[in-house]
Amino acid sequence: MTRVLALISAGIDSPVAAWKMKQLGLEVIGIHFSNEPLAFSSPREKTIEICRHLHIPKLYIVKHGVLVQAELMRKCDNKMRCVLCRRMMLRVSEQIAKKENCDFLLTGENLGQVASQTLENMTVAASAVKIPILRPLLCNDKQEIVDVGKKIGTYQLSVEAASCCNAVPKMPVTKAHLARIENEESKIDVDNIVKEAIATAQVMDLEDEV
Question: Least packed by Cβ within 10 Å: which of 3, 62, 107, 135?
């Protein structure tokens, strides 16, 4: 069976993306990037609930706010933070995927919904990894995603978790250039941050609960 690692949050989109892949017969495990203390704990708690609801048997919780976001805020250009953040998420996810024998990463990205989800930004973000990335919601209308979320019972959990990341810049870049992003990344120790994020990740075995 094809196995995928889903980047999953308490937002509306990623739970729907995970559900769609499960409907196609793929085995899905989850990884959640917690932005605490730059966000409240409710997104992490609701993500766990969502994974249980979707019968996702295992969830990795990464200390993203402490290890990645804080470092980016200290050392990198604010405008590029969303793309830099996404590249770090994908790097960590790629390594976890290898550990879990996953063939793909899975995201709930939807074209143009937020600043990080333009074609240019997604292309630059994805260039940080070699593993293929599945984006089943890429061209869906937002209302279509909301309707599916309501149908499968994740929408209400997502709404209850409503909490924005406080690290999002006021004017994020929407057309990132790889050379400029890589220049910003040279200001941080990417490899060690990724290693620490993996080493300190909480692994939740939900298999007995599903």
Answer: 3
